[in-house]
Amino acid sequence: MSIELSSPPIEFTDRGQSPFVIDDHSLIYISDTTMEAAAQYLLGLLDEDYDIQMIDANIHMNSGILFTYDSDLDQYPQGGFIIDIHSSHITISAAERGGLWNAVQMMDEILPSSEIDIKNSALPSVTILDYPTIDIEN
């Protein structure tokens, strides 16, 4: 027996703002130690090309990437997330750690792949909502 799964419903909403530019002044913010592994993975994706640091989110947020838990995302199957890209920052939100991991994998897909492209990269100002079409529990 085989099960065919449909593609996840990825929704993109254009914000109509200037793009977010990743540079050496960008920071990765976490507010909970359970976010650290996903944030470290994203930091690793960017680390070779930038001098980006990860800090506690209790410090005032400058240009950077903020990881956050959002209980409003409980309405979606486990693993759902929102990536909200503004001209000044990116917010990666999920109801739980699995969603943060999925969001970081999406960031890996939308970030430029070459060092030259990353140095000149700008991410469009959009909101990305993604979640599994079925809830699979391990």
Please outline what is shown here.
This protein is an alpha/beta fold. Helix content is 22%, strand content 28%.
Question: How would you describe this protein?
Answer:
By secondary structure, the chain is α/β, with parallel strands linked by helices. 22% of the residues lie in helices and 28% in strands. The chain has helices at residues 36-47, 97-110, 115-119, and strands spanning 11-14, 20-21, 27-30, 53-56, 64-69, 81-85, 89-94, 122-123, 126-130. Strands 1-9-6-7-5-3-4 form a seven-stranded mixed β-sheet, covered by helices on one side. Helix 1 links the parallel strand 3 and strand 4. The longest helix is centred in the last third of the chain and has 14 residues, at 97-110. It is globular, with a radius of gyration of 15 Å. Residues 1-6 have low confidence and may be disordered.
Query: What's the SSE pattern?
Result: EEEHEEEEHHEE
Strand % is 25-35%
Rg of Cα set: 15 Å
Which sheet architecture does the biggest sheet show? 7 strands, mixed
Q: What's the rounded overall pLDDT mean?
A: 77
Q: What descriptive keywords fit this protein?
A:
7-stranded mixed sheet; alpha/beta; disordered N terminus; 9 strands; 28% strand; 3 helices; 138 residues
List the helices and strands and how they pair.
Blueprint: E1 11-14, E2 20-21, E3 27-30, H1 36-47, E4 53-56, E5 64-69, E6 81-85, E7 89-94, H2 97-110, H3 115-119, E8 122-123, E9 126-130
Parallel strand pairs: 3-4, 3-5, 5-7
Antiparallel strand pairs: 1-9, 2-8, 6-7, 6-9
Helix pairs in contact: 1-2
